[in-house]
Amino acid sequence: MNPIDPNAEWIEPDGLGGFASGTVSGIRTRRYHALLLTATAPPAGRMVLVNGFDAWVETARGTFAISSQRYAPDVIHHDGASRIESFEYEPWPRWRYRIDNDLVLEQELFVPKGESAVFISWRIVAGGADPGGDGSAHALNQAASTPPATTLRVRLFLSGRDFHATHHENASFKFVADQNGERVRFQSYDGVPVVIAYSNGHYAHEPTWYRNFVYSEEQLRGLDAVEDLASPGVFEFSLSEKPAVLMLSAVAGGGDPGNSANSPASTPPAKESIEARHVQVRTSEQARRQNFSNPLERSADVYLVKRGKGKTLIAGYPWFGDWGRDTFIALRGLCIATGRLEEARDILLQWAGTVSEGMLPNRFPDQGEQPEFNSVDASLWYIIAVNDYLLAAKKQATLNDDCHIKKLSVAVEAILGGYSEGTRFGIRADRDGLLSAGEHGQQLTWMDARVDGREITPRIGKPVEIQALWLNALAIGAKFSGQWQALFEKGKAAFESKFWNEHAGCLADVIDCDHQPGAVDLTFRPNQIFAVGGLPLMLLSEEKARRVVDAVEMLLATPMGLRSLAPRERGYAPHYQGDSRAIDSVYHQGTVWPWLIGPFVEAWVRVRGANADARKKARARFLPALYEHLNHAGLGHISEICDAEPPHTPRGCPFQAWSLGELLRVERSVLA
Predict the structure, then answer these.
(1) For the chain, N or C: smaller number of CB within 10 Å?
(2) CA gap 200, 219 in Å, rounded
C-alpha cells in the first residue's frame, strides 16, 4: 500500500471466532486490537490474552524501536512507527522497518486457519533487498550481507480479559512464567486459558506493569479507553545469526499443549523445533490462501467460523458475533455467489435447528446466554438464503440430498406457519395478507438502535421491507406447499395499493403505524428499495419501480452506499460522531450503509432492462469507490457504515460481513 495509511486496520481471524488485529502503524487504537484473542466457546466467549508487544533492535550503532504505543493523555512512545518503510496485507500483514542505510528488518504475522495461535517472525534484509523476491524466503533465509551483532528484543503485553472490556493493574495477576526449552507458559488468572509461547530465542523473566495505554478509537466512541497491561518478561533473539520466530497459542483448561486435546495443531511436536514448525505451517497456510481465486474471496473466508459441530458467520470484526439477520444476508454473497455451497448448506442446516415459535434467533450472545429473538426479518432472510442456495445447488448433483432439503423445507414451513398464525412481538399475518409486527420496547427491524431504552426508529406496524421479505418468503414457500399461494396473492395485491404514494413518487416506509389502520409514515428511507431489488421478486409495476429507483438514487445514493435517511427529513445527521449515546441516536438517521449497495444496484439494473449495457453502466457508476475503500479502514474489506456527507468517512465496524457479501453478490450474480 503506497503511501502507507497508518490508521488502516488489518485482521487475521482464526476461523473459530478469535483473531489477531491491529493497525498499519502498529499503534493499537482499539481495545480489540490484540495478538492473541481467543474464543473459549467458539465463536463465543472471546478473551484477549496477549494484547501486543514492544520490540527493539540493538546494534553497534545503538538501540532502535520497531514498535510504538499510545499512552495517556496522547503520547506516542517509542518511535518505531516512524521507521516503517512499507506494509503489505496480502497474503498476511508484513512490515519493513528501515533502521538505517545498511539495515532493513522485515516482520510478518499470520494466524493459521482453525488454530487459536499466531506466528510472528522477523528477519534482516540487508540494504532492503529481498532474497526471496516476494518475501517467500522469510521462513528460511535472510540476506547474506548481514550486519554483525544485531539483537532483537520483544516484550509481550498480557491481560486475560473479556474482549469488550479493559484491563487495569491489580495484585491478582499471575506473573509466573514456566520455562521448558523453547516453551514458556503463562496464565494471567485462574480459569483463563493458558498462553504458550514457543520461540527460537531466549526468555528473560522481568515482570512489570505498563500503564495508561490509550485507545483513540474507543475515545471517539465515548468508551473506556485507558488500559494497564502486564509484561512478564523479554524474548531475546540474535538476528545476526538467524531469523526470529515466536509462536503464541491459547490452550483451554490450563494443560500442557504437548499433551492436551485442546492443543493447536500448529504446536510443535516434542522433537520438532519451532523453526521447522513455522516453515511447515507457513507453507501450508500460504497454499490455502493462494487457493482462492482473488483477494475478495479470501476476505470473504474470514467471516466463516465454527459453531459447535457446524458453521456460522461472524457479522463483523472486531466486536460482532454471529447475528441471524447479518448471517443470512451476508451468506448470499460470501458463500452462495462465490460457489461455496457446502459451507452455505452447513450454515443453513446449523440454523435450521434453532427455529422457535416460527422465529430464528437474531443473536447468540457472546457469553452463551439464551438466544435473542428480537427480529422480525432474520427468519425471512433465512428463507431468502435457503432459496438462493437451493437454486444454486440444483447445478451440483452432490448437493441434492433429500434429507438436507427436507430439513431446510421444514424450517421454512415452521417460519411461515409461525408468522401466519402469530408469534412473539405482535408478528402475525393481517387480514390483508401483509405482515404486522412490533410492540413498544422492542426493536425488530434492521433499523434497531436504542438510546436510554427508547427505540430511535420503532417502525411498529407494517414496515415496507418486511412486506417485501414476507411476500418473497411466501412465494418461496409456495414451491414447497401450495397452501401459501393464496396468502401471497392477497398480500401482493394489497402491497402496491397501500404503500404507493403517487404525489411523492415513492413508497411509504411504514403503514398502519402503531397498528392503527390507515396511519402512514412517509419518511424517505432506503427500505423501499427492497420492493424492486435485493430479493427474487419485483413487487411494483415497471413505471413505479423506476420512479422509486430514481428517487432513491437522487436522495440517498452515495459512492459508499445508501443513506439511511434523506437529507430533507427531520433528524437527518450528516456525520456519525460523538459518544455512544450520540452515535446510536444517528445510526439510521442518514448514516450510509454500504450493504444497501446490493439491492440498490440490482434495482437500478432491473428497471433498465437487466441487459449487458445496464450492467456495464452500473459497474462503472456505483462500484469504483467501494473497491478503492478496500485499501482503507479495514484492509481488504468494506466498513459497516460511513458518514452521510462527503468525504463519507468510514465508521463503525471496519470489517463487516454483509457489506463485503453484498459487493460479492453484485459482482457474481447481479452484474455477471
Answers:
(1) C
(2) 38
Place of cell 419485483: 538
The number of CA neighbours under 13 Å toward the Cβ of 616 is: 3
pLDDT score for 401 = 87
How many Cα atoms sit within 13 Å of 191 on the Cβ side?
Answer: 4
Which amino acid does the sequence have at 371? P
The answer to whether residue 484 scores a pLDDT higher than 80 is yes
CA angle 113–115–117, rounded 5-degree value = 115
Q: Is the pLDDT of residue 133 over 50?
A: no
pLDDT value, residue 21: 98
543-566 average pLDDT score: 98
For residues 605 and 608, what is the distance between their CA atoms, to the nearest angstrom? 5
Q: What is Dmax (Cα atoms) for the chain?
A: 84
Asked if residue 8 lies in contact with residue 632, where contact means CB atoms within 8 angstroms, the answer is yes
Q: What angle do CA 515, 517, 523 make, to 5 degrees?
A: 75
Q: Hey, how many other C-beta atoms are within 10 angstroms of the C-beta on 581?
A: 10
- Which three three-digit cell numbers place residue 653? 465496524
Asked whether 207 and 227 are in contact (CB, 8 A), the reply is no
Q: Left (φ > 0), alpha (ψ -120 to 50) or beta: where does 288 sit? A: alpha
N residues, the chain: 672
DSSP line for 2-63:
-S--TT-EEEEE-SSS-EEEEETTS---STT-EEEEEEEETTEEEEEEEEEEEEEEEETTEE
DSSP 8-state secondary structure symbol assigned to residue 595? G
DSSP tag of 234 = E
pLDDT tens per residue across span 83-93: 999 999 999 99
- The dihedrals phi and psi of 628, each to the nearest 5 degrees, come to -65, -35
Distance between CA atoms of residues 37 and 59, nearest Å: 33
In the three-class reduction of DSSP (H, G, I as helix; E, B as strand; rest coil), residue 603 is classed as helix
- Assess whether pLDDT exceeds 90 at residue 66: yes
Count of Cβ atoms closer than 10 Å to residue 356 Cβ? 14
Give the pLDDT confidence score for residue 261 in this predicted structure.
41
Strands (E) across 387-469 are located at 428-429, 435-436, 450-451, 454-455, 462-463
Global model pTM greater than 0.85: yes
Whether 131 has a pLDDT exceeding 50, the answer reads no
pLDDT the model gives residue 308: 85
Identify the H or E element spanning 506. Answer: strand 506-507
Name every residue whose Cβ is closer than 8 Å to that of residue 472 and which is 6 or more positions away in sequence: 380, 383, 384, 535, 536, 537
- What distance in Å separates the CA atoms of residue 228 and residue 209, rounded to the nearest whole number? 7
**What single-letter DSSP state applies at residue 634?**
B
Q: What string of DSSP letters covers 139-151? A: TT---SSPPSS-E
User: Tell me, what amino acid is at 329?
Assistant: I
| SS3 of residue 417 by DSSP | helix
Pull the grid cell for residue 630: 478496500
Tens digits of residue pLDDT in 614-663: 999 999 999 999 999 999 999 999 999 999 999 999 999 999 999 999 99
Is 515 within 8 Å of 523 (Cβ atoms)? no
- CA-wise closest residue to 634 among 19, 182, 16, 15: 19
Which residues 6+ apart lie within 8 Å of 619 measured at CB? Answer: 671
In the three-class reduction of DSSP (H, G, I as helix; E, B as strand; rest coil), residue 530 is classed as helix
Cβ atoms of residues 410 and 348 within 8 Å: no
pLDDT per position as a tens digit, 37-52: 999 999 999 999 999 9
Concatenating the DSSP letter of every residue in 48-101 gives EEEEEEEEEEEETTEEEE---EEETTTEEES-GGGGEEEEE-SSS-EEEEEEET
Positive or negative: CA dihedral 489, 493, 498, 503: positive
In a 10 Å sphere around its CB, with 0-12 CB exposed, 13-18 middle and 19+ buried, how is residue 570 labelled? exposed
